[in-house]
Write a structure and sequence with these properties.
This protein has about 220 residues and is mainly alpha-helical. Helix content is about 75%, strand content about 0%.
Amino acid sequence: MSPEIAAATAVVAAVAGALVPARRLVRGGPGRWTSPVLVATLAALGGAGAALLAGSWVELVTFALLALGCAVLVAVDLDSHRLPDVLVLPTAVALVGGLAVAAATTDTWPDFGRALLGGLALGVGFLTMALISPRALGLGDVKLAALLGIFLGWFGWSAVLAGVVATFLLGGVAALLLLVLTRASRSTALAFGPWLVLGAAVGAVLVSTGATPTP
């Protein structure tokens, strides 16, 4: 998509992000990250990224809705370490529905099937890790991983792999910096949702730009 479309998508996403009552989803009162300005900023970045990745108008709308949902989820997770179903499930419906329309209009049903398998693979994988180490991952992380697996699967298995690797690398670096630069300990809780989202974005960009080969 053109820079003009990317800019317009960013503006629309920012306005939508500012209007979402994200602070109501934070337990214990409003937090810093769920302020309308910060949510709007995250949504704008996601909207611009959606335009970068989209190859059609259907994909643009689908990815922009995903970006908006993820922006709010990241903000809520940073403030309260929660990824509420009231955000995850509608975002998943928008993503699956949008990709189904994209597959129908371009006759790319194999891509849609791979997207669903990608979601299943990451959902099962992260559920297994959550059962092994419930203090490290919650069910919200599992659901978000499955959602992002659908998104990454649309681009290919290389995107799924790149997204998972990027997620754990970024999350590991963040945890290390938290230990070094603050008084945090190994038992300090770290919101994992933001790294899932950022890792998925990195994986999708790497494949869409040709930095990682698509099988």
